[in-house]
């Protein structure tokens, strides 16, 4: 019997559309940021990245455009692409916008809690707790963001969901770049408490807990001056992400 290909095997370009290739490279770079393998100010040099991913400069630059649009990188004249730096003011604005959306969301969910099923959200919080306790930083950040996104999706407002998707992506990068890793369970505990209040139909407590939760995160970031002082070995960093041609 023919064995199936391992999940960590190199991607075959013939099996991937242009969008899938772009997403593969985009996600690899974002994951490296979330895992703190790329710090603010680190240069993304094209030649080693093209070799690492097995793509042309045209493909890589297409991904750079999306990364720049999403504030993941900055493209500077004569310097090229660099991992973006984010100010304390920007962080404050992101969390203020999230607060306005998410406080309104939990209030509405509490009003109709009797008609909602929270089992998927509770399972997500359990996964989040497990990954954080295990020290899987990047996976925890993603699951934490998914919790907030699933909450707003339950409210069935596509406009609010779209706005929050963008804000959560920005927040995830800020957490990956600037928050001090602490292997505790505070995030999952706070998420469980918010769910409890919503399920009980307690609008006041649900909104208070969400406000405190977001305020807590907004104050945990530490701006670092640890910009890259030497060129990173990008070829080695992304050596397992190559897209093979046939």
Class inferred from helices and paired strands: mainly alpha
Strand order of the largest sheet: 2-4-3
Beta-strand content: 5-15%
* Unreliable spans: 1-7
Number of H/I helices: 10
Report the major sheet: 3 strands, antiparallel
CATH homologous superfamily identity of the largest domain: GntR ligand-binding domain-like
Overall radius of gyration:
20 Å
Instruction: Tell me the count of domains.
Output: 2
How do the helices and strands follow one another from N- to C-terminus? EHEHHEEHHHHHHHE
InterPro entries: GntR_C, TF_FadR/GntR_C, Tscrpt_reg_HTH_GntR, WH-like_DNA-bd_sf, WH_DNA-bd_sf
Keywords: DNA-binding, Pyruvate, Transcription, Transcription regulation
GO molecular function, one term: DNA binding
Domain HTH gntR-type: 19-86
Write the layout of secondary structure elements.
Layout: E1 11-12, H1 18-34, E2 43-44, H2 46-53, H3 57-69, E3 73-76, E4 80-83, H4 88-111, H5 119-133, H6 137-154, H7 158-178, H8 186-199, H9 203-218, H10 234-237, E5 243-244
Parallel strand pairs: 1-5
Antiparallel strand pairs: 2-4, 3-4
Helix pairs in contact: 1-3, 4-6, 4-7, 4-8, 4-9, 5-6, 5-8, 6-7, 8-9
Structure description:
The chain is mainly α and 246 residues long. It folds into two domains: 18-85, Arc Repressor Mutant, subunit A, CATH 1.10.10.10; 88-221, Four Helix Bundle (Hemerythrin (Met), subunit A) (Up-down Bundle). Helix content is 61%, strand content 6%. It has a three-stranded antiparallel β-sheet. It has a two-stranded parallel ribbon with strand order 1-5. β3 and β4 form a beta hairpin. α4 (88-111) packs across α6, α4 (88-111) runs antiparallel to α9 and α5 (119-133) packs antiparallel against α6. The longest helix is centred in the middle third of the chain and has 24 residues, at 88-111. It is elongated, with a radius of gyration of 20 Å. It starts with 10 loop residues before the first strand and ends with a strand. Mean pLDDT is 85; it is low at 1-7.
């Amino acid at each position: 019997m023919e064995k199936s290909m391992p999940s960590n095997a190199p991607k075959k370009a013939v099996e991937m559309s242009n969008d899938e290739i772009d997403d593969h490279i985009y996600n690899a770079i974002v994951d490296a940021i979330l895992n703190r393998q790329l710090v603010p100010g680190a240069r993304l040099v094209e030649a080693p990245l093209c070799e690492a991913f097995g793509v042309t400069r045209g493909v890589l630059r297409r991904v750079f455009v999306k990364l720049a649009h999403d504030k993941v990188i900055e493209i500077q004249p004569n310097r090229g692409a660099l991992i973006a730096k984010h100010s304390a003011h920007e962080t404050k604005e992101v969390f203020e916008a999230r607060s306005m959306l998410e406080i309104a969301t939990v209030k509405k969910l509490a009003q109709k809690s009797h008609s909602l099923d929270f089992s998927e959200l509770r399972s997500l919080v359990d996964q989040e707790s497990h990954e954080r306790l295990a020290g899987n930083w990047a996976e925890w950040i993603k699951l934490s963001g998914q919790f907030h996104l699933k909450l707003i999706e339950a409210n069935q407002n596509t406009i609010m969901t779209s706005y929050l998707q963008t804000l959560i992506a920005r927040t995830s990068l800020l957490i990956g770049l600037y928050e001090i890793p602490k292997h505790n369970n505070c995030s999952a505990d706070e998420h469980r408490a918010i769910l409890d209040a919503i399920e009980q139909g307690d609008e006041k407590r649900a909104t208070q807990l969400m406000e405190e939760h977001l305020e807590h995160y907004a104050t945990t970031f530490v701006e670092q001056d640890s910009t890259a002082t030497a060129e990173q070995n990008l070829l080695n960093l992304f050596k397992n992400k190559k897209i093979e041609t046939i």
